[in-house]
Design goal:
about 240 residues; disordered C terminus
């Protein structure tokens, strides 16, 4: 909720009506996350409070995910255009799935009665398309000659792919209004990982997003480890390697 706005006061009747509209299936994960209380309506109210928090976190993460996706796809395009030419997606032997995505992007542009340009194709290609370029299927074709130069040289392709897949999963959960609170990987860790990844592509973009977004103030703060003298989540590991 906006700063200074009083919390919404739920009545039993309102809870029942909201439950019918939002649906029991959607609220149940939040309901289960609340410690049992003697009063069902008190527990249901707390579940809706958690749902509010989920909405607030999702809202705060939108510009972070937007910044990452735009930075990622444009930097990949710039690198591949430099290595293979502006129409690299026609010059590299993409796998059928990615070829179909390029064809679909062309159709979207044609349906809008627009002139096809590389920039417009890049804008139409899905986030999943760009993440797939870091998979094992493209290790020799994309990673070795080009994409590994976009990230720190201490990282393997598998580590980068795992990180980007995790970001894609979070993006999709937010896009489909799913739960992002009470996950094994906290939303604070996800935020730090995405901001770090944006920095791989552009330090200026990273600084701009951090300065203009509200995520850092909205998301829960890292837990401070007094014995180590640092936040527990300060040193964020790259996700485990994936295919």
């Amino acid at each position: 909720m906006p700063d200074g706005q009083p919390p919404y006061e739920y009545t039993k009747a309102q809870l029942q009506q909201l439950l019918a509209v939002v649906s029991q299936d959607r609220i149940m994960p939040y309901y289960k996350a609340i410690h049992r209380t003697p009063d069902r309506y008190e527990r249901l109210q707390k579940a809706f409070r958690l749902y509010e928090k989920n909405t607030s976190y999702s809202e705060a993460m939108y510009p972070i995910l937007q910044g990452f996706e735009i930075s990622m796809r444009n930097r990949i395009h710039d690198r591949l255009a430099n290595d293979y030419g502006a129409g690299w997606y026609d010059k590299i032997e993409l796998l059928p799935l990615e070829k179909d995505k390029v064809a679909q992007a062309r159709k979207e542009i044609a349906d809008k009665i627009q002139v096809e340009t590389a920039s417009r194709i890049v804008g139409e290609l899905s986030f999943a398309f760009w993440v797939r370029l870091f998979s094992t299927d493209y290790e020799g074709l994309m990673w070795e000659p080009s994409l590994k130069h976009l990230v720190p040289n201490t990282l393997t392709r598998g580590e980068v792919y795992a990180r980007f897949k995790d970001i894609k999963t979070l993006r999709n959960r937010i896009a489909h209004h799913s739960r992002i609170v009470d996950r094994p990987v906290t939303i604070r860790i996800s935020y730090e990982q995405i901001m770090e990844s944006i920095g791989w592509f552009s330090a200026d973009m990273q600084a701009w997003i951090k300065s203009t977004s509200r995520a850092d103030s909205v998301l829960p703060k890292p837990i401070f480890d007094r014995s180590a003298g640092i936040p527990v989540e300060a040193a964020i590991p790259v996700a485990k390697a994936a295919r």
